[in-house]
Specification:
Keywords: Coiled coil
Number of strands: 19
Structural class: alpha/beta
Mean pLDDT: 77
InterPro entries: FBD, FBL60-like, LRR_dom_sf
Protein name: FBD domain-containing protein
Organism: Arabis alpina
Order of helices and strands: EEEHEEEEEEEHHHEHEHEHEHEEEEEHH
Length: about 475
């Protein structure tokens, strides 16, 4: 269909659809880096992996709306940005299996009916992912009443393979349908260690069953964006919302390290206000919240839809809260002049955050007091350690001095005793010499002979040592 050695970017649009069929197998675009195909429907001549083989250096691929009903594999070593909107095929909606073999992909936007299996997911370089895994109403009921005997439900649990493949992302978006589907793999949900930014969309007919485990499995999350707060209340909403009173209320929020929370589509309903109060109470690390009140066709409790930015920041030892009104109101894509805001509504919204501010200030003061006490105890401990060390060294010196003095006295006593014995022997010998001269001569001779023998023995020993 297309043959070019220089074409770098190709965009295809058609009101009647795109059927890449006739001559499709002869496509050769070795330099194409961007391919954008958009239409009401798109049909490809071959499987997707064979189709992509015709573009060896392709980096960006946009495909909407592809129709497929069988096994498909997105395989490309060069792709960095991929966007796919799939719509099933006629009466068949859920594909059998979808695989991604794109090790260098950085950005993925994928909307499709949830597949029965995801046998291969290689997305090792992925940084950002936007997933919309769609289900119909009948399938939603099967998910909520899931059991191990339903074949369809068992297959949908394979979505955990896709979650495992994207676990290294830093930015992530889940649609309301996706959150519903994820309730089937709560036990196998991976830990998103690198995730910093999480955006979630809610719908009144979709549940939050997977929300608690999702928040607990994001240990380094910094920003959480809620596109709507209203959702279908079920007995499995968990402790992430305030819909059902539970004993372990707010546990998943307490363990979540999120610092910034954005709420979009705020309409001022009582349920939304209760949810905001719940978040402020249990998000222990929350520093800033932004609430966006958007314009809707339905009436709201806000006179002038605008953007409210409610900030709760910790500055040294003080906790401050403020409401910043941003003059950003859009209607049909254009900026319009903002009106006046009811003072009553301002005070009502501000009152939602005042208890949290006071609570944060009290907690911070208590923490500072405990820290000061710990510092004082540490100083006392260090002083006692230094004093004990000085005492130990002094005691050691005393013991050493005593041992040396004792050894010296023993040595002196020994030397004195030997000298006294020698003097006594000489005096006795002199007495014997005076009384018996012959005995004295014999003793002198014996003594000289002993000395000569001793010298001879020492000479032999020295001679032996020299020979060795």
């Amino acid at each position: 269909m297309f043959v070019s050695k220089t074409l770098v970017e190709l965009r295809l649009r058609s009101e009647f659809g795109v059927d890449w069929w006739r001559g499709g197998s002869g496509t050769c675009l070795p330099m194409l880096k961007t391919l954008n195909i958009g239409s009401e429907w798109v049909l490809l001549c071959d499987d997707l992996d064979k189709f992509l083989a015709a573009f060896p250096v392709l980096e960006g691929f946009y495909l909407a709306s592809i129709e497929w009903d069988s096994d498909e594999t997105v395989s490309s070593a060069s792709l960095k940005k991929l966007t796919i909107y799939a719509s099933g095929f006629e009466d068949f909606r859920n594909p059998k299996s979808i695989s991604f073999d794109t090790p260098n992909l950085i950005y993925l936007q994928y909307a499709d009916f949830v597949a029965a299996d995801y046998p291969k997911v290689v997305l090792t370089s992925l940084v950002e992912a936007l997933l919309d895994l769609m289900v119909i109403e009948d399938q939603v009921q099967l998910i909520r009443w899931a059991n191990d005997e339903n074949v369809f439900v068992l297959r949908l649990r394979n979505v955990s393979k896709l979650m495992s493949g994207i676990r290294n992302v830093q930015r992530l978006f889940f649609s309301a349908d996706t959150i519903e589907v994820l309730s089937l793999c709560c036990e196998s949900m991976p830990v998103f260690n690198n995730l910093k930014h999480l955006r979630l969309r809610s719908a009144v007919n979709r549940g939050w069953q997977a929300m608690p485990v999702l928040l607990r499995n994001c240990p380094h999350l910094e920003t959480l964006v809620h596109e709507g707060l209203e959702h279908c209340v079920t007995d499995k909403c968990g402790d992430a919302c305030d819909c059902i009173s539970q004993e372990e209320k707010g546990r998943s929020l307490l363990s979540c390290p999120v610092k910034k929370l954005q709420i979009k589509g705020f309409r001022g309903t009582l349920k939304e206000k209760e949810m905001i109060r719940h978040f402020l109470e249990y998000f222990s690390c929350l520093e800033e919240m932004e609430v966006y009140a958007e314009e809707h066709d339905d009436p709201t409790n806000i006179e002038v839809p605008r953007v409210y930015k409610i900030v709760a920041t910790k500055v040294h030892e003080e906790v401050s809260t403020e409401i910043v009104l941003q003059s950003q109101r859009f209607s049909h894509g254009g900026l319009v002049q903002p009106g006046s805001l009811s003072q009553t509504h301002m005070e009502e919204i501000s009152s939602q955050f005042a208890p949290r501010a006071r609570s944060l200030k009290a907690e911070l003061a208590d923490a500072n007091a405990k820290l000061a006490d710990l510092k004082e105890r540490q100083q006392d401990y260090d002083a006692r350690q230094q004093d004990n060390k000085r005492r130990y060294n002094a005691l050691f010196d005393i013991i050493v001095d005593q041992m040396l003095a004792s050894a010296l006295r023993d040595r002196r006593a020994t030397d004195s005793e030997e000298a006294q014995n020698k003097r006594d022997y000489n005096a006795l010998f002199e007495i014997l010499t005076e009384q018996n001269p012959m005995l004295a001569s014999a003793l002198r001779a014996q003594r000289e002979t002993s000395l000569e023998r001793g010298e001879t023995s020492r000479d032999k020993e020295m001679t032996g040592l020299d020979q060795d």
